[in-house]
């Protein structure tokens, strides 16, 4: 046999601490057909700075779809099917880099996904630039060993083969036809080269993660071995590996035979399906499934064909709506007939390669008036690759190499829902059959009507009122995830274990908005001291900060007067400009120079915020530059007057020192104390402290300006007017 090795690599990604699925870094690979060995090369590294500590990286694997993970231990939505992902842990302790290998023999062909993340996020809000986070990098490479000339086992034809040695197992493959209800594998004529007892092991199927349903068969001696499989995967190559368990130098000769049992499906004629499709598209409303009354010939054909067919296939149309958004329509109407003789089969096509990043939702409703027997139950199984064709014999929805998902409706419970998170790329089948309890009449003549609604959505229920559905991308692959808020958690933001009550949400909104009213004293002081431009800036900041935080709330207490991004930009701009004009006002420079710096600084701040809105230097840069101007101006005033400036000790003790202290406390709270849990009151404290510090730091008014005296502005009394004479010159 000729083996070919192939190597696939993807660029490294910077890992993040986990708080939702978007923090997990996804790697997407495609394993080719006839692969006999898969090896993952996982490389993790960290920075060398003092901020880098020992860290544990969790890596998840899955075949066919992104892995469904739950590092936070939250609850999944009701009716959701969850199977634990296969994961390993990589520890970065003293070593800067860690290299790990993961081997998978006879892997399943198709898409494979790897997701890596750091432990749970601490929840601390870090200001960009104040601290340097440690970079943790992760890269996944894939090596495959592929057999170029794998022998093909023809169904019904015995084929002799030789296993050269235990170190060189034999690989063959057989193609499973459509509508195969069972497979019989037989191994016979087992002879060793040393004329000893023949010991071989046969592995049927490929390994898939997180669960592998590979079937094993051990043959001892010369006795024929056989293995029967129910519902093998339709229209796929089934890989078979035979390995010798004998001595190292002994070869083994075997003869293999694979045979299939193919059932005869019964379905409506293509002409009637075409008529139904035209009627549903022409007569129904847009987006509504059309239905037509079956003809008498069709009804008689279905009744006579039930006993001669092993399944009744119902035509389904796949309707693509958007990215990771698909709706399935039944041509014969949303209701399908279900009987006890043979299962009713619906094909849900999810094999485009771009459907595995959402959630597959199946709703099953029973028309109770259509069932004549009491306690009759309609059981259903949703499975991938092959349908379950014996629902009356088995209730666990298992096929040859996969485990399906069961549903059931009855006269007592007429509705059932199933949610498959990140369904694997494949053809999915929904099998329905009617089961009647024993001793309650003839069940063969009874037919039930079940309504099926199936669709693929990016996020189930759009993540609910306390979540946001985000479309994520890894190269050309798109998948969706829910980002929860207001303390809610879980895959679809349905876990209310740590959820904030409505009262807490209202309190948070009131604190974050009403705390901006503390700018009113600063505005009053600025107006009283004739700093009208500064008062206008504080009013602007108070207005937009109030409505930005009213729009930024995660819960139900939300009010947005304009676009969120606009409110955020205006809030950040007003905050930085307020600091800028306050420090320049304290510098007591000439008015013309002060107003030029006001305008020029505001324009530069607006530009820098557009480049990086959350950068720390967008606030620290203007502050430091304004402080340099203020210190220079104070030194100039002190040298000119030959004493300290400001000269009054009362100004230092009762105004400057309290204002500076409040400003430093505000910066400390903003930079080092804010977390996701305490944000609503720590940020409110930031509002109060900054507004109070502005009121303390504003300098007194100019001595030549009189205070506002509204009584002197009134003209309904006698007053002494000053006569300003203007000299006029005439040129003759």
TrEMBL record:
The UniProt record lists the EGF-like domain at 455-494
* Highest taxon of the lineage: Eukaryota
Biased composition, Low complexity: where in the chain?
Answer: 286-300
Membrane-traversing stretches: 507-531, 592-611, 617-636, 652-673, 679-698
Native source organism of the sequence: Dryoscopus gambensis
GO cellular component assignments: plasma membrane
The cysteines joined by S-S bonds are 459-469, 484-493
Similarity comment: Belongs to the TMEM8 family.
Entry keyword annotation includes tRNA-binding = no
Q: What is this protein called?
A: TMM8A factor
Sorted UniProt keywords: Cell membrane, Disulfide bond, EGF-like domain, Membrane, Transmembrane, Transmembrane helix
Alphabetized InterPro entries for the sequence:
EGF (IPR000742), NGX6/PGAP6/MYMK (IPR021910)
**What subcellular compartments does it reside in?**
Cell membrane
Q: Where is this region: Disordered?
A: 286-307
* Bilayer disposition of the protein: Multi-pass membrane protein
């Amino acid at each position: 046999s000729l083996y070919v090795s192939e190597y696939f690599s993807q660029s490294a990604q910077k890992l993040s601490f986990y708080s939702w699925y978007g923090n997990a870094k996804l790697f997407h690979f495609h394993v080719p057909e006839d692969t006999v060995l898969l090896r993952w090369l996982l490389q993790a590294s960290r920075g060398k700075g003092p901020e880098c500590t020992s860290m544990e990286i969790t890596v998840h694997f899955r075949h066919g779809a992104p892995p469904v993970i739950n590092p936070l231990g939250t609850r999944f939505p009701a009716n959701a099917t969850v199977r634990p992902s296969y994961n390993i842990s990589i520890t970065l302790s003293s070593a800067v880099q860690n290299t790990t290998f993961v081997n998978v023999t006879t892997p399943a062909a198709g898409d494979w996904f790897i997701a890596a993340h750091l432990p749970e996020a601490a929840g601390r809000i870090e200001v960009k630039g104040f601290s340097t986070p440690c970079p943790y990098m992760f890269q996944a490479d894939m090596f495959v060993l592929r057999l170029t000339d794998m022998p093909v086992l023809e169904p019904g034809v015995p084929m002799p083969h030789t296993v050269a040695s235990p170190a060189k197992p034999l690989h063959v493959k057989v193609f499973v036809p459509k509508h195969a209800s069972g497979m019989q594998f037989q191994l016979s004529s087992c002879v060793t080269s040393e004329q000893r007892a023949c010991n071989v092991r046969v592995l049927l199927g490929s390994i898939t993660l997180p669960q592998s349903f590979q079937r094993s068969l051990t043959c001892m001696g010369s006795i024929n071995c056989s293995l029967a499989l129910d519902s093998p995967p339709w229209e796929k190559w089934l890989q078979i590996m035979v390995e010798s368990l004998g001595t190292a130098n002994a070869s083994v000769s075997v003869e293999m035979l694979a045979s299939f049992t193919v059932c005869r499906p019964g379905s409506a004629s293509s002409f009637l399906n075409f008529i139904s499709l035209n009627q549903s598209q022409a007569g129904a409303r847009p987006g509504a499934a059309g239905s037509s009354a079956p003809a008498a010939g069709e009804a008689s054909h279905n009744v006579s064909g039930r006993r001669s067919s092993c399944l009744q296939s119902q035509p389904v149309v796949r309707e693509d709506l958007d990215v990771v958004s698909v709706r399935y329509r039944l041509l014969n109407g949303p209701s399908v007939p279900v009987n006890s003789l043979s299962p009713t089969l619906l094909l849900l096509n999810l094999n485009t390669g771009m459907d595995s990043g959402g959630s597959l939702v199946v709703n099953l409703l029973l028309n109770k008036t259509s069932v004549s027997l009491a306690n009759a139950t309609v059981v259903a199984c949703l499975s991938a690759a092959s349908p379950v064709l014996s629902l009356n014999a088995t209730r666990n929805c298992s096929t040859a190499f996969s485990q399906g998902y069961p549903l059931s409706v009855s006269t007592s419970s007429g509705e059932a829902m199933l949610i498959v998170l990140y369904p694997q790329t494949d053809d999915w089948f929904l099998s329905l059959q009617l089961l009647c309890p024993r001793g309650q009449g003839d069940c063969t003549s009874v037919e039930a009507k079940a309504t099926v609604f199936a669709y693929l959505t990016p996020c189930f229920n759009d993540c609910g009122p306390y979540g946001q559905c985000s479309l994520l991308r890894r190269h050309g692959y798109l998948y969706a995830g829910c980002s929860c808020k207001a303390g809610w958690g879980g895959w679809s933001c349905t876990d209310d274990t740590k959820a904030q009550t409505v009262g807490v949400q209202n309190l948070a909104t009131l604190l974050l908005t009403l705390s901006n009213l503390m700018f009113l004293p600063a505005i009053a002081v600025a107006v009283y001291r004739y700093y009208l431009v500064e008062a206008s800036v504080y009013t602007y900041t108070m207005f937009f900060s109030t409505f930005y935080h009213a729009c930024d709330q995660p819960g139900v207490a939300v009010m947005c007067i304009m676009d969120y991004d606009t409110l955020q930009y205006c809030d950040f701009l007003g905050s930085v400009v307020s600091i800028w004009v306050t420090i320049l006002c304290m510098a007591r420079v000439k008015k013309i120079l002060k107003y030029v710096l006001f305008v020029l600084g505001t324009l530069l701040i607006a530009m820098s915020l557009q480049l990086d809105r959350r950068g720390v230097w967008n606030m620290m840069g203007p502050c430091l530059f304004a402080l340099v101007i203020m210190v220079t101006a104070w030194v100039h005033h002190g040298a000119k007057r030959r004493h300290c400036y400001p000269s009054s000790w009362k100004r230092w003790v009762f105004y400057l020192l309290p204002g500076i202290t409040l400003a430093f406390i505000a910066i400390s709270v903003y930079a080092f104390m804010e977390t996701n849990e305490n944000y609503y009151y720590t940020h409110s404290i930031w509002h109060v402290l900054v507004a109070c510090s502005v009121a303390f730091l504003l300098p007194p008014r100019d001595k030549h300006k009189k205070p506002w005296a509204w009584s002197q502005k009134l003209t309904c009394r006698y007053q002494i007017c000053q006569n300003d004479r203007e000299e006029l010159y005439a040129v003759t």
